[in-house]
Design a protein that fits this description.
Layout (H helix, E strand, L loop, with lengths): L2 H9 L4 E10 L9 E4 L4 E3 L4 H15 L7 E5 L11 E9 L4 H8 L4 E6 L3 H10 L4 E7 L13 E5 L15 E4 L4 H18 L4 E4 L3 H13 L4 H4 L2 E2 L12 H13 L3
Parallel strand pairs: 6-7, 6-9, 7-8, 9-10, 10-11
Antiparallel strand pairs: 1-2, 1-5, 2-3, 4-5
Helix pairs in contact: 1-3, 4-8
Amino acid sequence: MSKTNIFLARLAHEAAVLVTVQATRGSVPRESGAWMAVFAQGAVGTIGGGHLELSAMAEARQRLAGGSGESVIRYALGPALGQCCGGDVQLFFERVTAADITVLQQRLTTTPTPVALFGGGHVGHALVQVFANLPLQVTWIDSRDEIFPPQVPSNVCCEHSDPVQAAVAKLVPQSRVLIMSFSHAEDLEVVAACLVRQRLLTDLPYVGLIGSQTKWATFRHRLQARGFTPQELAHVTCPIGVPGVVSKAPEVIAVGVAAQLLQTV
């Protein structure tokens, strides 16, 4: 369950103060729009932790207890709170109840970034677990229908496609594509389908292929023989993942790939 749904489910039974980062200047722990819902006991979400969050919680609970104050409070992180970030944050405080659930549902629900994951192997399985708590909507695609586990995270939808590259035409625009099927032949066809779509629609911001530089050199040669230009091939990222990660363990690869993918969001 998302933090928004957790917050709203609890709000149905008890009031809260919603604390939202309204504006920032300089170095700060969270961006504008980040929020934290403070209840009499406990909270949902975060505005960055540290003294800033502790001070905001105290202010919110004082309002829950019947106190009042300015709707927007500015916090200077260095002088006032002793945080070395050095910037300042404006926080918006609002008391909310069950009557506000519909409006808050619309306001706090964000559109997740679409991701197309081709391949249900070990790294694919590790990736969907990493993606479970990220703001992504994942379509997990494989030509083998039996490869998917019986339960997947709520933001993952499984799709059987044979041939697997046929799924590329149906991808949501702006999908980030990860290609890691059980077969190099399938990988090649998916890459080619993505490049054709990118040529026509330019709506796949990231196309990543698992593998070594040697694998990509072979693929590049074959794709050039099919008529793809060097400029088109440059759109493919291979190897995938943030540099410097040397472990080949699926769980480690998944973290590095997720980190790289988030750089495109």
